[in-house]
Amino acid sequence: MKKTLLLVETLFVLGAVGCGAPDGSLPVEDRQPTLETSAEDLTTTGCTQLTPASVKASGDDGAGSVAANAMDDQLTTRWSSLGKGQWLDFDLGATKAVSAVSVAWHEGNKRANTFTVSVSPDGYTYTQVYSGKSLGTTTAAETYAFTSVSARRVRVTVQGNSLNDWASIAEARPCSGTVTTPPPATPGGIVWRGDFESGSRSQWDGTQMMSADRLQVVSSPVREGGYALKATVKQGDDPINSSGNRNEIFKQTKEAVGSEYWYRWSTRFAADFPSVNTWQLFTQWHHDGCCGSPPVEFYVYGEEMRLNIGGSPGTIVWRTPLVRNAWHDFVFHVKWSPNASVGFVELYYDGQLVLPKRNIATQYSGQLNYLKIGLYRNDTIAPVGVVYHDGWVMGRTQADVLDANYKLK
C-alpha cells in the first residue's frame, strides 16, 4: 500500500483504554474488481505507514484472494475469506511503535465491516487495541487510530459486514507511533490510578475479553470507593486465539529499565472460585517481546496464592493460603531490571511485610513490561471463575500509594 495508492477520508480515534484453507465447497465471493487504481498521487491521512516483513491469514477463498494481495499495492486485488472471525496478521519484522491501522475495504462503499485490531509481541499473545466498524461509504482507505503501543505483529479480525459474513480487504498497513516510557507522573508522585472510580474501564488502555459482561465495573462488592472490576472466565473464553482462557484488562505501564515503582491493589475471589491444581493468573506484568511466560505473575494454584518471578519455571518467591470471599490487599515494590543484582521485589500483604526486598531480575533483556489484571487460566478448567479487582494505584514512593485507610506493618 504505497502512498500513491491510498486515499483516506476519515481518521477514527479510539479513546485511551487493548487455520488453514477453507473447504473448497465454500462459495467464492464475486471476483469482479470495483475500483481502478488512480494514477494521481493519493496520500494517507493520519498514518505514517510501516512496511511489514510478511502477512498471513486465517484462510482465503480458495480462488486466489490470498493474504499477500493486501500488500501488493493494488486496489484491484484483495484478500477474502468467508466466516466471522477471519483475520489478517502482519509481521513487522521487529518490535515497533504502532498507533493505527489503515485499511482499504473491498466494496467498502457498499457495506460496513465490523472488526477489531489486536497487537502482539510474539505472535502468541494478542491484545485488542481497537474495535469498530468501517464507514461503508468508500472504497478508499480509512485509518483507525488507538493509543500507541509496542508490537511486532498487528492483526485485523473481521466479524462480517452489513451484507454477509465475508472478510475482504483490498489493502492494509499498520501505522507508526511513539510510545512514551515511563508514564508521566501526576502531582504528588502518583503515576496512574486504575481504581475504576470513573465508573467504567476508561482508566485502562484496553481489554482482551469475549464480551462486556466478562469485565464488568460493579458497585458491589468493593474494597474502597464506589466501584470495582468483576472479571469472569468461562471455559472456552479465548478472545485472542492464544493459549488458555482469559478475560483481562491492561495498562501499557512500560516501566523503564532501572525505574522503581510502588503498586497497590486489592483482589477478591468469589466463594465458588475453582480449586484446581493448575495455574490461574489474576495479576501479571507481561513482557513486550517474544515468547514465554510473563516475568512477574501473581496466580492461584490449588489452594494457594503465589508470586512467581522469571517466567516458567521461574522462582516462586511468595505463597500463602487462598481465602475466598474476602479482600486481599497488596502493596508491591519493584525495581525493574533484567539484571538480577539490580532488580528487586518487595511485597506487603494485608498490611504485613511478607517478602522483604529480594534482588532478582524483573524484566527480560531488551523488553519492557505492561500490566494485565482480570483472570487468565488453564483452558482445562471447566467451572466458571470470578475475581474482583479494586483500588489500583501506581506511584514512585510508598507514601504515594498509601492512604489513611491502609497502614503497613
Q: What does it look like?
A:
The radius of gyration is 22 Å and the shape is globular. It has 409 residues and is mainly beta. Strand 20 (344-349) and strand 21 (352-359) form a beta hairpin. The relative contact order is 0.15. The chain is built from one helix and 23 strands. The model is unreliable at 2-43 (pLDDT under 50).
Salient structural properties:
mainly beta, Jelly Rolls, 2 domains, 8-stranded antiparallel β-sheet
Compact summary:
This protein has one helix spanning 398-401; strands spanning 8-13, 54-57, 79-82, 86-105, 113-120, 127-133, 141-161, 166-176, 190-194, 206-208, 215-218, 228-233, 245-251, 260-269, 279-287, 296-301, 304-309, 315-321, 327-335, 344-349, 352-359, 369-377, 385-395. It is mainly beta and 409 residues long. It folds into two domains: 8-176, Galactose-binding domain-like (Jelly Rolls, Sandwich); 187-401, Jelly Rolls.
The structure class reads mainly beta
Number of helices: 1
- Assign a percent range to the helix content: under 10%
The ordered string of helix (H) and strand (E) elements is: EEEEEEEEEEEEEEEEEEEEEEEH
The name of the CATH topology of the largest domain is Jelly Rolls
Measure the end-to-end span.
60 Å
Largest sheet: 8 strands, mixed
What is the gyration radius calculated from CA atoms?
A: 22 Å
- What is the average of the pLDDT values? 85
Domain count: the total is 2
3D shape: globular
Tell how many strands the DSSP assignment holds: 23
Name of the CATH first level of the largest domain: Mainly Beta
% residues in beta strands: over 45%
CATH architecture name of the largest domain = Sandwich
Unreliable runs, pLDDT <50, ≥5 residues?
2-43
